[in-house]
Amino acid sequence: MAKKFFRQKQAVAGLVVILAFFAASLLAPYIAPADPLKVDLEHKLMPPSSAHPLGTDQLGRCILSRLLYGTRTSLLDAVLVLGMILAISIPIGTIAGYVGGRVDNWIMRIIDILLAFPSMILALAITGLMGPGLIHMLLALAAVWWISFARIIRGMVLQIKEKDFTLAAKACGDSHLKVVFRHILLNAVSPILVLATLEIGSIILAISGLSFLGLGAQPPTPEWGAMLSDSKPYIETAPHLMLFPGLTIMLAVMAFNFVGEGLQKAISSPGTGGQGKQEGGGLRAKRPLLKISFFKIGEEKKT
Fold it and tell me: How many domains does the chain have?
């Protein structure tokens, strides 16, 4: 799988960009040209220069420094939200798909009810009830995003539990826990990894969007969406205030999408280890995985 992935130029380029972003978040205190919170009204709205490579904002703060420190907020919080989503959706989707019967019906009816509400509107409502703040925003996103993940994971479990190697494990007397962890979840790791990678770009957009509306990171915390919001009044006089945060968000989202698509192609290719095997605990992916977006929930076949 690794060889197939690294043969794709877009996927490799996306991986390099992602690693650069995470390196920037870790090394921000050492490579940032100035303090991201330092106010210098004498040099406000300055264009790019040697002292400030990307210029300064309306309070004279270095834009490059704020972007570097904002990487910590935007990317690391996106990873945190993704971790919470997986922690909720994997157990629920696995229980629904493996147990079946009334348990599956009850879980899926609850999911269907939650899917009736637009995800972004529901996230806005939850954040509004709890109050603006980064932690509240992350909890709200995790609370609405696990639904689509659980639905897809349930579909994976329904397929894997009917495979010959799973039925053979049950016939040999393996416990339910052993069947779930050793045969079902082990074979679902690769598709879940692809799904998570494809979705993290949408999570970054959601975090930036809610911060743009003032519901996420609060001033003076450096955050890409908040920086876009602060630059609205200066779009004509100082367009670089909005240009650089917008390009950073676009680059990060594109990088994760490239990596996700690369993983999808590598895993879906015939003969790929892990997903390409049918015997010894593998599962062949005959078609690309269904991509889920924040605003569009994918359809799955009812069984």
Answer: 1
Within-domain flag for 286: no
Structural domain boundaries, residue 86: 2-268
Q: Is residue 84 part of a domain?
A: yes
**Distance between the two ends of the chain, CA-based, in angstroms?**
30
For Cα atoms 253, 56, 234, give the angle at the middle one, nearest 5 degrees: 80
Secondary structure class of 33 (helix, strand, coil)? coil
Q: Directed axis angle between helix 134-160 and helix 77-99, to 10°?
A: 30
Q: How many CA atoms lie within 13 A of 218 on its CB side?
A: 8
Alpha carbons 166 and 67: distance in angstroms, whole number: 49
Q: pTM (2 decimals)?
A: 0.83
Q: What is the domain-level CATH number for residue 59?
A: 1.10.3720.10
Residue 32's SS3 state is coil
> Quick one: which of 127, 20, 129, 32 has its CA closest to 81?
127
Count the neighbouring beta carbons within 10 Å of the beta carbon of residue 229: 20
Q: Which two tokens stand for residue 227?
A: 């920086």
pLDDT tens, residue by residue, 133-184: 889 999 999 999 999 999 999 999 999 988 888 888 888 888 888 889 988 9
